């Protein structure tokens, strides 16, 4: 298996622009997680899905953030409008069960100017 | 609240030496799982080792082993015969049974010196 695939690897955008981050989980994994990593706050869970259904989005910082999982092989995290404080590395991870090993993608480094 | 503490922000050792990274956690739950993740400069988060809290035997994966002390809520990682490729940030994490949220520590930056 190719592992969790995230795109793009890097994203540079200007404040106010819409940003869409993409994730393809490992086939057969029922859980998908979105994390954000910053120097100040470390790794934070933003939202996770089970069988394509959002279960807990309490970590989503603001209404500017939204996530979808239209099918078992694709998820997006959207920021609209983006702000400089959104600059971070965003990770997607997937697992087979709720307490299973989470496997991470390579992350997307987002820079909002 | 569940927390993870990694008290060593940075460590460095000579190649081939053994190094131990410390981790303590706090939870009122009895059933949980503990993990060590490695994040090399490439940024990829890589699962190193996993320990189930109900197991008394310490987990091992090749050169990596843990010292799990449930009563003390301690979960240290030992790397034997360290290699240059072990240079990375190491994160301790745990998840409580019935709760899908993985709680991470702040990480320890490990440098292996040639």
Account of the protein in words:
- The complex is a heterodimer of chains A (113) and B (114).
- Chain A has no helices and eleven strands.
- Chain A has strands spanning 5-7, 10-13, 19-24, 31-38, 42-50, 53-56, 65-71, 74-79, 88-95, 103-104, 108-112.
- In chain A, the strands form two sheets. In chain A, strands 2, 4, 5, 6, 9, 10 and 11 form a seven-stranded mixed sheet that branches. Chain A has a four-stranded antiparallel sheet with strand order 1-3-8-7, with no helix packed on it.
- In chain A, strand 7 (65-71) and strand 8 form a beta hairpin.
- Chain A starts with a strand and ends with a strand.
- In chain B, 31% of the residues are buried.
- The mean pLDDT of chain B is 94.
- Helix content of chain B is 0%, strand content 53%.
- In chain B, the strands form three sheets. In chain B, strands 2, 5, 6, 10, 11 and 12 form a six-stranded mixed sheet that branches. In chain B, strands 3-9-8-7 form a four-stranded antiparallel sheet, with no helix packed on it.
- Chain B has 114 residues and is mainly beta.
- The termini of chain B are far apart.
- Chain B is globular, with a radius of gyration of 14 Å.
- The A-B interface holds A 31, 33, 42-43, 45, 48, 50, 55-56, 89, 91, 93, 98-99, 101-107, 109 and B 33, 35, 37, 42-47, 50, 91, 95, 97-102, 104-107.
């Amino acid at each position: 298996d190719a592992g969790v695939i995230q795109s793009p690897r890097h994203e540079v955008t200007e404040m106010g622009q819409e940003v869409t981050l993409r994730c393809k989980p490992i086939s057969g994994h029922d859980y998908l997680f979105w994390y954000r990593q910053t120097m100040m706050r470390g790794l934070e869970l933003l939202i996770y899905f089970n069988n394509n259904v959002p279960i807990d989005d309490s970590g989503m910082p603001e209404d500017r953030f939204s996530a979808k999982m239209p099918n078992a092989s694709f998820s997006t995290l959207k920021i609209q409008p983006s702000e400089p404080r959104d600059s971070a590395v965003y990770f997607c991870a997937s697992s087979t069960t709720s307490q299973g090993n989470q496997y991470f993608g390579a992350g997307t480094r987002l820079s909002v100017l | 609240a569940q927390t993870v503490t990694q008290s060593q922000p940075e460590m460095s050792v000579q190649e081939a030496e053994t190094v131990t990274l410390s981790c303590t956690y706090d939870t009122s739950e009895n059933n949980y799982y503990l993990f060590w993740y490695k994040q090399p400069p490439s940024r990829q988060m890589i699962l190193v080792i996993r320990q189930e809290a109900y197991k008394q035997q310490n987990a091992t994966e090749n050169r990596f082993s843990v010292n799990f002390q449930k009563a003390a809520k301690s979960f240290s990682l030992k790397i034997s015969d360290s290699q240059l490729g072990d240079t990375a940030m190491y994160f301790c994490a745990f998840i409580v049974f019935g709760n899908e949220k993985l709680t991470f520590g702040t990480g320890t930056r490990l440098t292996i010196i040639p």
